[in-house]
Amino acid sequence: MERMATKKPPTPPPNPVRVPDRDEGGSVVLERVPLKTKPPGMYQVVMLNDDYTPMEFVVVVIQEFFGKDLEAATAIMLKIHLDGKAVCGVYSKDVAATKVDQVLEAAHKAGHPLKCLSEPVDF
Ligand code: TYC
């Protein structure tokens, strides 16, 4: 087959090359680049003591909304009663906020002043 007279395609511009930094001894120095994204922080749901909410109600709430068995829920309730507060669970921000809403709604409906809140872990 006869070759056609074709022009060579223009050479593409060279890729930008990052010339590595070197120290005085000529060794390549790598630059530490900070991660741009942080993993989302976790939130703990803290339940607070009061003088009026029955212990049995708190135990049921902890079992129902925080997935604890009777023994674990009773231990958490007693810690709240004795220390003034305790962590019921640790969740993503949205889930923790939902747990707080569920507890406050259940307490309000039952006429108890039980309070809880969510806060970042290591607050
Ligand atoms: N202190 C309450 C009582 O003696 C019991 C209680 C425990 C209330 C935990 C709230 O988050 C709480 N009846």
UniProtKB/TrEMBL annotation:
Region (Disordered): 1-27
GO BP terms, alphabetized: protein catabolic process; proteolysis
Single GO term (MF): peptidase activity
Domain called Adaptor protein ClpS core: residue spans: 38-116
Keyword Lipid metabolism: no
Family: Belongs to the ClpS family.
NCBIfam families reported for this sequence: PRK00033.1-5 (NF000672)
Described function: Involved in the modulation of the specificity of the ClpAP-mediated ATP-dependent protein degradation.
Protein name according to UniProt: ATP-dependent Clp protease adapter protein ClpS
Gene name of the record: clpS
